[in-house]
Amino acid sequence: MSRSAAAVQRVIKAYDVRGLVGEEIDDAFVREVGASFARLMRDGENSTQVVLGYDMRASSPVLAAAFAEGVMDQGLDVVRIGLASTDQLYFASGLLNCPGAMFTASHNPAAYNGIKLCRAGAKPVGKDTGLTTISDEVIAGVPGYDGTRGTLSDRDVLVDYGQFLRSLVDVGSLRPLNVAVDAGNGMAGHTTPAVLGPIPSMTVFPLYFELDGTFPNHEANPLEPANLVDLQEFVVQTGADIGLAFDGDADRCFVVDEKGQAVSPSAVTALVAARELSREIGATVIHNLITSRAVPELVTERGGTPVRSRVGHSYIKALMAETGAIFGGEHSAHYYFRDFWGADSGMLAALHVLAALGEQDRPLSDLMADYQRYESSGEINFTVTDAPAVVESVLKSFGPRVHGIDHLDGVTVDLGDGSWFNLRMSNTEPLLRLNVEALTAEGVSGLVDEIGGYIRAGTRELT
């Protein structure tokens, strides 16, 4: 059946497929997406099978089954791994060297679902690498296939996944650690016991490990400070040495220290980069332009080569492949590893932080202070009607104070005194996103107030 272009393009986005179940995504739609994806992989990659996983949302098993039907309609076999985190699906794609599909809407509310697609070896499928082709075919109607229908089989890779991650980080001689983990009722409740459970030195204090796609306790999005509060209190209450929070599909990991204070993902990026560079001096490390400047500074000091990227996993993964980078990190707590097929894994990043903590005697707050050189605002969103005009107004307001400027992703302004800010337009909403870094918290606050005032003034002038 053919579908309207607007309806399909609203759901098949730049990086994945995502929408409201029943209204935007249903069985018939995902069956067509599965068929088109299989055609693309069969004809373009000579693939013979697709590995398939899904998260804990109530709609995921049914939608995954419909997708499998579409894949088999096109002659490819389906290997189901069942309940999985997104990085567990990437592991299966790498292990089996075949394309993969993960049914999840990550941190979105319960009413949503979606699909993250990858080629063999966990290589990403985005707008320019397959999603546009799939969108066009679903709009026009996916052609049929006259060959033999594919088969369906099951394979449990959870234990293998845990063993593989532990093979990448030496956790054999760590001091005892009490580890509080907030799974947010997401897939970390499924994977944490398989990864951390076999490590003798670690005692896990579980919080919200029950798989529940309605997210009864808080949203599974630790990037929002309100969703970290329960873990911060839990760490202090239990006397844990560290707290870990994962998003719904457990591909992102956020860290809380023993005092209940959130650790910047930039500091985590710097720590993991230092660890990776210690075993391969001179290696390349990718960081997006919103991460702290402490990251490229530290990479250079440790003998590595920092490479700056636009925001977004498709850009990071492309640069990882192009440069052979050993590691990459984003401000959003996505962490990418060459030894994990260049894909992101929050659990692997967590193992690195745990190893760094357990290899020495200092508390986490002291350890992470080595990697926290600047203060930052986090991402602040402003609703605007004409973002380019407002950005231009902000730049004019700073005038001669601008020390340097670039346009890699939005506009990044260096003020020459250790402070900088970035303004980026959202691709999907009428939002202007601001990130600020400075030497002190007061410097950050002052710049946020100043830039916010310019943005609001510019918006008023345009209305």
From TrEMBL:
<dbReference type="InterPro" id="IPR005843">
    <property type="entry name" value="A-D-PHexomutase_C"/>
</dbReference>
<keyword id="KW-0479">Metal-binding</keyword>
<dbReference type="Pfam" id="PF02878">
    <property type="entry name" value="PGM_PMM_I"/>
</dbReference>
<comment type="similarity">
    <text>Belongs to the phosphohexose mutase family.</text>
</comment>
<keyword id="KW-0460">Magnesium</keyword>
<dbReference type="GO" id="GO:0046872">
    <property type="term" value="F:metal ion binding"/>
</dbReference>
<dbReference type="Pfam" id="PF02879">
    <property type="entry name" value="PGM_PMM_II"/>
</dbReference>
<feature type="domain" description="Alpha-D-phosphohexomutase alpha/beta/alpha">
    <location>
        <begin position="270"/>
        <end position="374"/>
    </location>
</feature>
<feature type="domain" description="Alpha-D-phosphohexomutase alpha/beta/alpha">
    <location>
        <begin position="161"/>
        <end position="260"/>
    </location>
</feature>
<dbReference type="Pfam" id="PF02880">
    <property type="entry name" value="PGM_PMM_III"/>
</dbReference>
<keyword id="KW-0413">Isomerase</keyword>
<dbReference type="GO" id="GO:0016868">
    <property type="term" value="F:intramolecular phosphotransferase activity"/>
</dbReference>
<feature type="domain" description="Alpha-D-phosphohexomutase alpha/beta/alpha">
    <location>
        <begin position="11"/>
        <end position="134"/>
    </location>
</feature>
<dbReference type="GO" id="GO:0005975">
    <property type="term" value="P:carbohydrate metabolic process"/>
</dbReference>
<feature type="domain" description="Alpha-D-phosphohexomutase C-terminal">
    <location>
        <begin position="379"/>
        <end position="451"/>
    </location>
</feature>
<dbReference type="InterPro" id="IPR005841">
    <property type="entry name" value="Alpha-D-phosphohexomutase_SF"/>
</dbReference>
<dbReference type="InterPro" id="IPR036900">
    <property type="entry name" value="A-D-PHexomutase_C_sf"/>
</dbReference>
<protein>
    <submittedName>
        <fullName>Phosphomannomutase/phosphoglucomutase</fullName>
    </submittedName>
</protein>
<dbReference type="Pfam" id="PF00408">
    <property type="entry name" value="PGM_PMM_IV"/>
</dbReference>
<dbReference type="InterPro" id="IPR005844">
    <property type="entry name" value="A-D-PHexomutase_a/b/a-I"/>
</dbReference>
<dbReference type="InterPro" id="IPR005846">
    <property type="entry name" value="A-D-PHexomutase_a/b/a-III"/>
</dbReference>
<keyword id="KW-0597">Phosphoprotein</keyword>
<dbReference type="InterPro" id="IPR016055">
    <property type="entry name" value="A-D-PHexomutase_a/b/a-I/II/III"/>
</dbReference>
<dbReference type="InterPro" id="IPR005845">
    <property type="entry name" value="A-D-PHexomutase_a/b/a-II"/>
</dbReference>
